[in-house]
């Protein structure tokens, strides 16, 4: 019986560590330790139910262990602030007044397209619609929005961390030469671009690595 | 808050109580079973064992089995059932030499089985 307790505790700690290492992209609306519990508890309940060779007591002990661990983690978080940071993590500011913070994105195993998606879910369609954007410890996205939103046209991602989106480039009427000329004007190489978006009105969000983002205007083919 | 702490402490104490009880209970049950097997072994070795001796050990095991099934995986229990039935069958036919081997295996199982549930690094990993 005590073996089940110890083994469950080890699995819990390992899963928690893995979830913390995987960053916020894998969590979604839950604290990491809550996510670990949801992962484990379903399986713990199922195995003794389905496998009649295992005494049901094994499942009960494992589930009670999970309850104890949950309570212990919760109390430790309540009493000691550093424990909360270790177990649940802390919010990451991924957009600041200079634009996208690539380091924070990488730290949380996210890319610019994940950020754009989170922003769209939160109701922001342009990267410069917010002063600050952050991923909370539970993986949800929060933002301090600007008074006026940038445009009414949907922006398309042209370059995401140095990788051009060929489909979107064609849709906006960008060929290889036009893109290269644009990058030359901005004094940037393709791999140095953190993000570049363009909307139907030709409004460009351009951010070079290590620099503040720029808002530019270009002519685009067609409207969307 | 106080309620939560009380629930947590109660759960920890309950678990500790169960662990200690399970440890003592398992060791005691297998010790008794082991003693019965020792007696049977001596009788088989001296060729004085009767099928009734085998059945007596089996009855004793069946009595313990119903309680052990709460704590021991059923596969381990059926393993003992298998060897014990073979031993009884051989005693019925007076095949003492073959029965001796079966009792030897049962003695090893009775000695080692509780160890597989004790808190040891090799059991945890």
Brief sketch in words of this structure:
The complex is a heterodimer of chains A (224) and B (125). Chain A is built from eight helices and nine strands. In chain A, the strands form two sheets. A five-stranded antiparallel β-sheet of chain A has the order 6-5-7-8-9. A four-stranded antiparallel β-sheet of chain A has the order 2-1-3-4.
Describe this structure in words.
The complex is a heterodimer of chains A (224) and B (125). With 224 residues, chain A is an alpha+beta fold. Chain A has helices at residues 2-22, 32-50, 56-79, 81-88, 102-107, 112-122, 166-171, 176-186, and strands spanning 92-96, 99-100, 130-135, 141-145, 156-160, 163-164, 193-198, 203-208, 214-217. In chain A, the strands form two sheets. Chain A has a five-stranded antiparallel beta sheet. By secondary structure, chain B is mostly helical. Chain B has helices at residues 2-45, 51-68, 74-92, 96-112, 121-124. The A-B interface holds A 1-3, 5-7, 10, 52-55, 57-58, 61, 64-65, 67-68, 71-72, 74-75 and B 4-5, 7-8, 11-12, 14-15, 18-19, 22-23, 69-75, 117-119, 123-124.
Helix fraction of chain A? 40-55%
Q: Which chain pair shows the most residues in contact? A: A-B, 22 and 24 residues
Count of extended strands of chain B:
0
Radius of gyration of chain B using CA atoms only: 19 Å
H/E element order of chain A: HHHHEEHHEEEEHHEEE
Can you tell me the residue ranges of chain A where pLDDT is under 50 for at least 5 consecutive residues?
A: none
